[in-house]
Give the backbone structure.
Amino acid sequence: MGKLKNGIIGFAIGDTLGVPVEFKSREELTRNPITDMKAGGTYNMPIGTWSDDTSMTLATMHSIIETGTIDTNNMADKFLKWFRNAEYTANNETFDIGRTTLQALAKYELKLNNASNCGGSSEYDNGNGSLMRVLPIAFYIYYKKIKDTNVIYNLVKETSSITHSHEISILGCYIYVIYTLLLLEGKSKTEAYKYIQKADYNNFSDYSISKYKRVLQDNIAKLAEDNISSNGYIVRTLEAVMWLFLNSNDYNNTILKAVNLGEDTDTISAITGGLLGIYYGADSIKESWKQKIKKYDYIIRLCDDFDRTIIAEEE
Ligand SMILES: [Mg+2]
């Protein structure tokens, strides 16, 4: 499979595996771990159902396909179609939305401002809600061969700011995007990790950078599982993702480990799944999971459309 499909299928299957146990504690999942795809969860969804993370990722891809660029108003229009009309959903039903995302989309819907000025900007608006939908931006940057770090910074900032405009959120997305780009360029996971630790974060304040100390200065891979939280705070989410990925040897075992960390299971396994898919390939993902996931062909088709539009424009 192509690189985009590897990433997006890896992401969507991670999300789907996590949905039935969202908000379950690690203790509970240690006693009764997830070993396969199943139905259920907070919203009692049928087997193979992915959540808002994948919906917003697909909506972002669709916007890029339609406009050929990063157009944040168009993107926000697509998010509203998801939220209001259940487009980009697994079962034609919207069943989950984060608080900051909901507030931002409500603001945009009332035409109070341009989309990139609607995101929550307080320190309390630093959930993982923009990190969970930023993966297509990395692919856009990769396909367009954009190397200028200020351009990359601005694309990430504008995209995150549709819902999450605090600098801590933007930095979390930025670290994930540049790390993904390094993997796409063929760097090993540890080599890429060294790069992001040495990278230039001049666009960010010392305050925000200090929040990511465990990823950017310490070696997150070396921490014991007890020191890894798996909650929805973007800093903790990125730590968990990097810890899982840097210690991984494959997709199938690592994605179950991600789910079984508990708490924000769907989002952490989705974001981790994106990296695992890129790195180990979607061909290595358990066949039955690809068969059970809802609208698999639709996801593949959207990836093909994205590849065709963005790569074709380039050449
Ligand atoms: Mg979700």
